[in-house]
């Protein structure tokens, strides 16, 4: 079941040999855990994220994540779906209300592994252990001019210029997505 994911990782690593360490972490998880697409898989699981560009391709979609209290790209759990691009599109749609979101490339724009801290209830009991998200991030776009909608998972969702992204966050993984999307657009026609 994980063969398409492993092929995607091979292709990504061939284009980004300097990111071999990150790719190997995802590959090791996929090779060791047939259930890596389920959120119950520990020590981590696959997630799909979306770097969504506006119709004019000059802005990107960021949301202020309610639980993590950070400005991030849309994304979330695969919940058993091995097609991580489809996951990224689904999550971007759910978290923005935009219905016409499509991939600019079938290949990931970026791969990131990051720690999600444990969560505790009011009594101090652990409700979710700390775990890793092995996140495949895709460059998506929309041609929709419909207003975006804030989901229950976010405090805010907005279109941001590159300058606004830098004002809202210093998260290196988000800034890396911005740099990579700008480079992709420069190489593939803005």
From TrEMBL:
PROSITE patterns: NUDIX
Domain Nudix hydrolase intervals: 43-182
Record bears the keyword Hydrolase: yes
Molecular function as annotated in GO: bis(5'-nucleosyl)-tetraphosphatase (asymmetrical) activity
Domain of life: Bacteria
Example of a GO biological process term: ATP biosynthetic process
Keyword field contains Hydrolase: yes
Keyword annotations from UniProtKB, A to Z: Hydrolase
Protein's name in the database: NUDIX domain protein
Source organism of this protein record: Posidoniimonas corsicana
């Amino acid at each position: 079941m994980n063969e398409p994911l492993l092929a995607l990782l091979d292709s990504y690593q061939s284009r980004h040999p300097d990111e071999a360490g990150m790719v190997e972490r995802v590959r090791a998880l996929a090779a060791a855990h047939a259930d890596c697409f389920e959120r119950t898989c520990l020590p981590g699981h696959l997630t799909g994220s979306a770097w969504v560009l506006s119709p004019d391709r000059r802005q990107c979609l960021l949301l202020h994540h309610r639980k993590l209290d950070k400005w991030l790209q849309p994304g979330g759990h695969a919940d058993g779906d091995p097609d991580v691009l489809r996951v990224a599109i689904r999550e971007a749609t759910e978290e923005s209300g935009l219905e016409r979101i499509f991939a600019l490339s079938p290949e990931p724009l970026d791969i990131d592994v990051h720690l999600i801290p444990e969560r505790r209830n009011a009594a101090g009991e652990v409700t979710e252990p700390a775990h890793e998200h092995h996140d495949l991030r895709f460059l998506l776009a929309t041609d929709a001019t419909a207003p975006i909608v804030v989901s229950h998972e976010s405090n805010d969702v907005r279109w941001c210029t590159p300058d606004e992204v830098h004002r809202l966050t210093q998260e290196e993984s988000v800034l890396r997505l911005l740099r990579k999307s700008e480079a992709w657009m420069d190489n593939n026609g803005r």
